[in-house]
Structure formats: C-alpha cells, structure tokens
Specification:
two-stranded antiparallel ribbon; flat
Length: 148
C-alpha cells in the first residue's frame, strides 16, 4: 500500500481540522519511457494542507516526466503531456478514497470515532454495508438462473 506523506506528527484531530479547512490528499503522476516502452505511474499519496501549494510536492515528478517521459513511441508524448498537466493543475485529488479506506481499515473499537471525526455517521455506513450485502445476495440469486 502506498505511504501517505506530509502527515508525520499530526494527530487525528489536527488532520480532521486541516481537512475541514480545505486540506486534501493528492497523487501526482509521472512517466518514464525507453524507446518502445512507456511506464506511467502514480506517486505516494501526499497530504496538502489548506492554502499550501502543490508545486513543492509535484515538482520532482514533473521534472522526471519532462526529461524521461517523451522517448517512448507512441505513448510517451501522450502520457508525458497528461502527467505534466495533472501535476501542474494540483494532482489527482484522492481525499474521498483515503477517508473511505481509513474508515474500512480501522479496528471496530475506533471505527465509531473515525466516522464521527471524518463526517460520516454510523447510520450511513450501516446502510452502505446492508446495501452491499443485499446486492451480493441478489447477484448470487440471479447467477443461479444464468446459463453457463
């Protein structure tokens, strides 16, 4: 699993306050090409505080892509332009996915605190779990009648 950078030393309360003020979790793209092979990847997740510029986090990935991304044919130039554009416009915001995964991965005793802190109510999560279980049961029921 990718590491979350720029949250070292922050308590859960500090992190929640930053998220409420406009902080976000972001991934930057980079691209490296070798003649006919082009590799496009995402960085680790970076936490960007409210009002903080993403440039200091994305500059390394942008330079790596600018110097080593173009050289693969045909995808090198396409992925390079796409990655540079994504990085210069603030990266890909993955805040909702991170909040969701943190709520899922926490032990049962601390899930209630996390739901409260991250603006999710217990009822919302319970309904979601019930809907998922219901959907799975419906799929299993329908799959018995499908020809194989």
């Amino acid at each position: 699993m990718a590491q979350i950078r720029n949250i070292q030393g922050m308590s859960v309360d500090e992190l929640n306050r930053e998220l409420q003020r406009g902080g976000k979790f972001v991934v930057f793209h980079y691209c490296v090409s070798v003649i006919v092979m082009t590799f496009r990847r995402g960085s680790d997740v970076h936490f960007v505080r409210a009002g903080e510029s993403t440039i200091k986090h994305s500059i390394g990935y942008t330079f790596l892509t600018f110097f080593f991304g173009w050289w693969g044919f045909p995808w090198g130039p396409i992925y390079t332009i796409s990655s540079i554009f994504t990085n210069l416009t603030g990266g890909k915001d993955v805040t909702q996915e991170i909040i969701y995964s943190l709520n899922i991965e926490q032990p049962a005793s601390s899930v209630t605190n996390a739901k409260t802190n991250l603006s999710l109510s217990e009822n919302d999560t319970r309904e979601t779990e019930e809907e998922i279980l219901k959907r799975r049961a419906e799929k299993e029921d329908h799959s018995r009648f499908m020809p194989q």
